[in-house]
């Protein structure tokens, strides 16, 4: 059976975590984790957002669906085959005020799948402790996400502060706000704007930004 994003979104809304998990694990038998995240879970959650915006579901329904999605993302991670470490480190976080974090968890998972050591710091992390943590962990890459357009200035400020660190981490920025906005002004030396998980995968595999523009 091929599961569609809409069917999965409806299962999320029933709150049936076991059914959701069974479907996701079944999907992983024939698909990769990035397919699961990009082709199934992301569109399912975008549908939840549309239905919420259209008042077809309540805030409580949306919270329930998010909790089930969060659960299956964590459970799917446990099914990932361990890769040999490549001795590169990534720190993954959302800036202060940003509450959306499911995308960040997927980003973190993709880094791990490619053998990176990852510190997943979650969303809503103020800049000062983020810098303290970066100074201790010394990541090669700091990946950040924003879902809302008005968070882009924060992303820019964080990017500039991280770029000023003496160990020169590469900054990756992504998320719904980034992929839908005109963020050409944010592109600069050492700051890579990544549209989605497919571009991230390409970058992880080749070290190059994807050819196509997306804004
Ligand atoms: C769940 C949810 C919430 C939850 C989040 C909880 C959580 N655990 O994350 C809660 C209830 C907290 C919430 C709050 C709000 N939300 Co909300 N939320 C959503 C919803 C339904 C799903 C988000 C999600 O998980 N999506 C799935 C993930 C996987 O998608 P993603 O984040 O885009 O990530 C993918 C890519 O962007 C990319 N990616 C993401 N980050 C990065 C980073 C890098 C480096 C890379 C390479 C790639 C990458 O990879 C991911 C995988 O494909 C969305 C709908 C939507 N379209 O996303 C609305 C949505 C984003 N929210 C919205 C709004 C308005 C809000 C609030 C302002 C509502 C309010 N009035 O309070 C607040 C703001 C909170 C805040 N301060 O941040 C709007 C934004 C509209 C707009 N014009 O910008 C949306 C689109 C809903 C809608 N249709 O109206 N929300």
Description:
37% of the residues are buried. The protein is globular. The chain is α/β, with parallel strands linked by helices. It has a five-stranded parallel β-sheet with strand order 2-1-3-4-5, with helices on both faces. Residues 211-215 have low confidence and may be disordered. The termini are far apart. It is built from nine helices and five strands. Helix 2 (17-28) crosses helix 4 (59-78). The structure holds cobalamin.
Shape field: globular
The low-confidence runs, each spanning 5 or more residues with pLDDT under 50, are 211-215
Ligand types = cobalamin
Q: Strand pairing plus helix content: what structural class? A: alpha/beta
Question: What average pLDDT do the residues reach?
Answer: 92
Order of helices and strands: HHHHEHEHEHEHEH
Strand count: 5
What's this, in brief?
The chain has 215 residues and is of the alpha/beta class. Helix content is 53%, strand content 13%.
Provide the descriptors you would attach to this structure in a database record:
single chain, about 220 residues, alpha/beta, Methyltransferase, Methionine Synthase (B12-binding Domains), Chain A, domain 1, Rossmann fold, 5-stranded parallel β-sheet, binds cobalamin
Topology record:
Elements: H1 5-14, H2 17-28, H3 33-53, H4 59-78, E1 89-95, H5 102-113, E2 117-125, H6 127-137, E3 141-145, H7 152-163, E4 170-174, H8 176-180, E5 191-193, H9 197-206
Bound molecules: cobalamin.
Cobalamin is lined by residues 37-38, 42, 45-46, 48-50, 52-53, 62, 66, 70, 97-104, 106-107, 143, 145, 147-149, 172-176, 179, 194, 196-197, 200.
